[in-house]
Every structure is written in structure tokens, then in C-alpha cells.
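Whiteboard transcription, Tuesday session. T.W. wrote the C-alpha cells on the left side:
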């Protein structure tokens, strides 16, 4: 009961948590090690972890462990705590709603907060057409429901996803996800009528956006047939696949082709949405308007909540009772989302993401100039990455990425890797982080690269 032993001395999370990196033990410290031993005895081996600590508090740009180590957070729990962990407005909204009621099931007795989140999503997502929303629990569930809706609307079955795409771990979303290990291997058979085409990966394909779109469109026309295609599902900036920013013109050309062929254009903004990229939605950066957009992660300040929002006539295609789930749009999660959305709209978080972009890109470009193994520096807002590759051949260097990430974590800086080839280090700081911590985190990253 290591956490109970600690309870009287546990710090509160949120912005009050001292914003300083502090290492008092090696990672993992003894208390964390105890928890990790219990984890491996009690939790299924398939549920891995990258940072070997027992987390007890988080806030601003810090995650604190049971041993008293304070780590700089450049991961936000995979782009979730964008407003910060334990944001005061979010905590207050959760407590107030929990005291009121925790659940009625929206499909049994509807409540206002769900409707208010739907109204906010309809208002905030790109495009000024009439929109409707349905809420779910996870990003995968949102993507899966977007596909259901698109199929019902079009009466077609085929769905196109992209190389390096990631959309979740359920059966349908595994089929949409590109990477076999660790997401798919051994878990088939996968859902039928999913087709994969190449996207735009400027660092590796060297194609203009228009040429990359033409390549994808030819495959869709020749190998799938527009008349069979219900939807195209795409991340505007690919997340797990390597923070790949498509070349200019790629996304608008694919969107236009979908429009011309009555194919539902589904943009998966589960990772890129809600101020993460320096715009409320990454779609805005590329001038695209999704027919359906999926959201989750940052929307509810750490609570599980996801949405599908889109053109009213498409969203209304499913018959009454065709969409839903026991917990979808849970009232506590909706209250948290309304508080987080208030912060996104009123606390300057979009501008903060833009400042973080400049700071991080400057620092990382400096690193790339002196170290040719840093082959590419890319991203938008607080969704930035470096791709590590052999300077001569361009071969992906996953071992280098893993070594650097391990060294950062040992020094108390949480970084995550990603990419189909595992050779990308991504940075997803909470927007609540201060510049000093961000610089210190990047200093540690720079030393780790230099030492490898
Ligand atoms: N779509 C674009 O990024 C989740 C997954 C990490 P869920 N990404 C992090 C892991 O190893 O499971 C994600 C995403 C995009 C969909 C999802 C799925 O969202 O809330 O994890 O289901």
C-alpha cells in the first residue's frame, strides 16, 4: 500500500505543484519499483509503460512520483493534459458535477452538459455549415462511429486510410491503423473493406503535396473505386506514425477529390485537436473543412471523452438508437470538457501553443545544424518532433531514438518516441508549462543526443 503510506504527505497536483525538476533517486526509485513489481504481477503484460515511475501528482509542466522525483513533462499523457493536469477550473467542475450526479446514461435521461459540449464542438470545429455531434469515451470509439455514420450516409462500405496512420486499438480501428508491431500483430483477423494508400511524408518521399495527393487519388480510383468508397480517414498531422506534417496542398487536394466523389472526408483530430497545434484544430492550418471530425484527448482536461462532429445531414443518417453506448458523454467528463473548453477559448492557449512552437523549433533546429543524425525537425504548435536517421543513407535510427528517450527519462524528462520506424522523438508539453522548464527539458534532450 505504498500510496496509502504516503497519503498524508502527497502534494496536490495542478499549477500549485512546484515547477522544478528534482531528482532525489535514480528512476525508478524504491517506491516506484514496488508499484511496478505489483503491476507486473497484477496487470496484463500487454499493457506496457514507458516511464518507470509511480505517478502521484501532476500539474503545470511537472509529473511527480512516489519517491519525490519531479519530472519535466514533455508528453502530456499522450497529448491529453493540454490545459495542464488538475487544471483548477477542470477540478472544480468535476467535483461539482460528481456531487450532483455521476451518471444517468444520456440515452436514458439526457442532461445539459452533454448538449452543451455538442454545441461547443459544433461551434468550434472548422466550417460554418450546420453541424451535429455524438459523444463517446475514447478516440478509437469516435473513429469507429465516424465510419459507421459515413457508411450509413453513403450506403457504401469501403474506407481508405493512409500509410503511417493511427486510429486506435479496437478491431475496426486496428484495421485502419498502419503499424503491425505493437498494435496489430497476432490480433487479426481485421475488419474488411479497409484500403491503405500512401500519404505525404516530405522528409522521406520528396513529393510535392499535389503529387502525393495524385498518387493517393489514382490508387483510390483504380483499386477501390470512388463508387464503393464511403469515407477517407486521415490525421491532418500524423501522430503515432511520426508527427508527419503533409506537404502543402496534399490535404486540400484529397478533400476536394472526396467532395467531387461524394466520399465522406473524416479528419481524425484526436491527437491534433484543441489548441495542440497552435490552432483550435489542425485542419485550420491546412485550410481544410472536414465532413466529420473526431476529437478526444485534450478536449476534457484528462477525463475520457470523445466526439464525432460534422455535417448535420451526414450525422443524422444513423437511425435513432443506432449510435450510443452506456457511458458516452458521461456527465463528469462533459463538465470537465466545458471547463477545459473555457480555458482553450479564454486563457490564450492557442497563442501559448504558437509560442511553444517557436521556442521548440528554434532549439531543435540548432541541434539539427550541429548533428546530422537529426534528419528532420517538424511539427506545429506544441506537437513537435525530431526524426533520427543515418546522415548518409537516411536509414531510420530507432536504436538512437530509444537510447536518447531512455537517457532523458533517467534525467527526469518525460519524452515519447513514435513513428512507423520508431525513430522519431516527439514533444507534447502541456500548454501550462513555463518557458524555463521547457528550456531545461530541451537542455536535457540536447545533452542526451550529444552523449549518444
Ligand atoms: N486517433 C489520431 O492519436 C490515440 C494511442 C497510444 P484512444 N493515440 C495514442 C496507444 O499506444 O494506445 C489516437 C490518435 C488518433 C485515434 C486515437 C485513439 O484514441 O483514446 O487511445 O482510443
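and on the right, the sequence the group agreed on:
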Amino acid at each position: 500500500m505504498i500510496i496509502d503510506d504516503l497519503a498524508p504527505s502527497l502534494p496536490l497536483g495542478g499549477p500549485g505543484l512546484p515547477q522544478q525538476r528534482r531528482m532525489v533517486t535514480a528512476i525508478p526509485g524504491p517506491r516506484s519499483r514496488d508499484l511496478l513489481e505489483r503491476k507486473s504481477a497484477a496487470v496484463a503484460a500487454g499493457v506496457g509503460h514507458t516511464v518507470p515511475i509511480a505517478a502521484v501528482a501532476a500539474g503545470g509542466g511537472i509529473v511527480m512520483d512516489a519517491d519525490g522525483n519531479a519530472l519535466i513533462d514533455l508528453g502530456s499523457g499522450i497529448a491529453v493534459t493540454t490545459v495542464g493536469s488538475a487544471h483548477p477550473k477542470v477540478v472544480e467542475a468535476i467535483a461539482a458535477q460528481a456531487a450532483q450526479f455521476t451518471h444517468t446514461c444520456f440515452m436514458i435521461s439526457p442532461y445539459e452538459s452533454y448538449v452543451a459540449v455538442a454545441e461547443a464542438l459544433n461551434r468550434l470545429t472548422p466550417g460554418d455549415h450546420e453541424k451535429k455531434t455524438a459523444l463517446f469515451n475514447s478516440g478509437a470509439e469516435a473513429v469507429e462511429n465516424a465510419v459507421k455514420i459515413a457508411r450509413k450516409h453513403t450506403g457504401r462500405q469501403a474506407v481508405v486510410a493512409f500509410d503511417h496512420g493511427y486510429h486506435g486499438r479496437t478491431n475496426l480501428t486496428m484495421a485502419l491503423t498502419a503499424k503491425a508491431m505493437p498494435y496489430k500483430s497476432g490480433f487479426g483477423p481485421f475488419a474488411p473493406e479497409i484500403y491503405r494508400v500512401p500519404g505525404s511524408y516530405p522528409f522521406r518521399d520528396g513529393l510535392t503535396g499535389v503529387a502525393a495527393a495524385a498518387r493517393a487519388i489514382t490508387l483510390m480510383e483504380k483499386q477501390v473505386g470512388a463508387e464503393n468508397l464511403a469515407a477517407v480517414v486521415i490525421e491532418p498531422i500524423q501522430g503515432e506514425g511520426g508527427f508527419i506534417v503533409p506537404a502543402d496542398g496534399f490535404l486540400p487536394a484529397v478533400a476536394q477529390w472526396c467532395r467531387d466523389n461524394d466520399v465522406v472526408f473524416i479528419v481524425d483530430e484526436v491527437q491534433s485537436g484543441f489548441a495542440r497545434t497552435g490552432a483550435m484544430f489542425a485542419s485550420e492550418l491546412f485550410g481544410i473543412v472536414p465532413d466529420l471530425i473526431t476529437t478526444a484527448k485534450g478536449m476534457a482536461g484528462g477525463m475520457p471523452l470523445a466526439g464525432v462532429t460534422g455535417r448535420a445531414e451526414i450525422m443524422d443518417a444513423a437511425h435513432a438508437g443506432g449510435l450510443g453506448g452506456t457511458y458516452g458523454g458521461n456527465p463528469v467528463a462533459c463538465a470537465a470538457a466545458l471547463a477545459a473548453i473555457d480555458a482553450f477559448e479564454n486563457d490564450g492557449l492557442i497563442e501559448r501553443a504558437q509560442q511553444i512552437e517557436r521556442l521548440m523549433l528554434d532549439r531543435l533546429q540548432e541541434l539539427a545544424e550541429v548533428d546530422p543524425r537529426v534528419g528532420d525537425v517538424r511539427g506545429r504548435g506544441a506537437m513537435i518532433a525530431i526524426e533520427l536517421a543515418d546522415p548518409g543513407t537516411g536509414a531510420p535510427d530507432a536504436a538512437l531514438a530509444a537510447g536518447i528517450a531512455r537517457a532523458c527519462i533517467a534525467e527526469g524528462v518525460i519524452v515519447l518516441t513514435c513513428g512507423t520506424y520508431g525513430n522519431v522523438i516527439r514533444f507534447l508539453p502541456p500548454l501550462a508549462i513555463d518557458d524555463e522548464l521547457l528550456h531545461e527539458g530541451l537542455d536535457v534532450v540536447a545533452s542526451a543526443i550529444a552523449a549518444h
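Someone added at the bottom: The domain at 30-86+349-451 is CATH 3.90.1150.10 (Aspartate Aminotransferase, domain 1).
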